[in-house]
Amino acid sequence: AQKITQTQPGMFVQEKEAVTLDCTYDTSDPSYGLFWYKQPSSGEMIFLIYQGSYDQQNATEGRYSLNFQKARKSANLVISASQLGDSAMYFCAGTFSNDYKLSFGAGTTVTVRA
Amino acid sequence: GAVVSQHPSWVICKSGTSVKIECRSLDFQATTMFWYRQFPKQSLMLMATSNEGSKATYEQGVEKDKFLINHASLTLSTLTVTSAHPEDSSFYICSAQRNAAETQYFGPGTRLLVL
């Protein structure tokens, strides 16, 4: 079974600094997609960034970038220039084997300090 | 585009009553909708997948007679928690997908409290 692992339950980061959130996945499928979502205290799930297994370049979206290391099966999220509004829970998720179901990691709570 | 709404956003009910939650894709047609459940500080757990016009597919351990899902149109899916009990109190989130090749768009969630 495919699995997404996030090993950091919580992290603190100083405002304006960068933070890296770890995500590893376990699959033998050649085709898969990896996602990062942000969930603030309001509960809504906000899509941040997507990386396909065949994508040659690391995905970037504004202050978010995905450090995709295929051989290590990792897809870490980097948030640059952290802002107070970045405080939230962050989930790594994946779709595997042409299955449209999303498998979620346990999540990482990020707290940005002023 | 790709906006998904849920109604209600909050519901408090007495034990034994049934609660219906609606999930709507506002600006696109969703061939597939998903229902998740989330307990505080935990991850999302997929409950079921529903395709328009067909029966929902439930994940292992989810009681289909307890959580009734109807996907009557390409823009509406409903989740009914039947005979709700306090242990059903949770955050329920739906998502919608145009097709299998696209990402899922999430609704804002519904907080259910059963007294």
Biggest sheet layout of chain A: 6 strands, mixed
Helix-strand category of chain B: mainly beta
**What's the oligomerization state?**
heterodimer
Summarize the helix and strand pattern of chain A as letters.
EEEEEEEEEEEE
Per DSSP, the total helix count of chain A is 0
Percent of residues in β-strands of chain A? over 45%
Describe this structure in words.
The complex is a heterodimer of chains A (114) and B (115). The termini of chain A are far apart. In chain A, a hairpin with a 4-residue loop joins β8 (64-69) and β9. Chain A is mostly beta strands and 114 residues long. Chain A is 0% helix and 53% strand. The mean pLDDT of chain A is 94. In chain A, strands 2, 5, 6, 10, 11 and 12 form a 6-stranded mixed β-sheet that branches. Chain A is globular, with a radius of gyration of 14 Å. Chain B has 115 residues and is an all-beta fold. In chain B, 0% of the residues lie in helices and 52% in strands. Chain B has no helices and 11 strands. Chain B has strands at 4-7, 10-13, 19-25, 32-38, 44-51, 57-58, 67-73, 76-81, 90-97, 105-106, 110-114. In chain B, the strands form 2 sheets. In chain B, strands 2, 4, 5, 6, 9, 10 and 11 form a 7-stranded mixed β-sheet that branches. A 4-stranded antiparallel β-sheet of chain B has the order 1-3-8-7, with no helix packed on it. In chain B, β4 and β5 form a beta hairpin. Chain B is globular and about 40 Å long. The termini of chain B are far apart. The model of chain B has no long low-confidence stretch (mean pLDDT 93). The interface between A and B is medium-sized, with 18 and 21 residues.
In short:
Chain A is mostly beta strands. Chain A has strands spanning 3-5, 10-14, 19-21, 24-26, 32-39, 46-52, 60-61, 64-69, 74-79, 88-96, 103-104, 108-113. In chain A, strands 2, 5, 6, 10, 11 and 12 form a six-stranded mixed β-sheet that branches. In chain A, strands 3-9-8-7 form a four-stranded antiparallel β-sheet, with no helix packed on it.
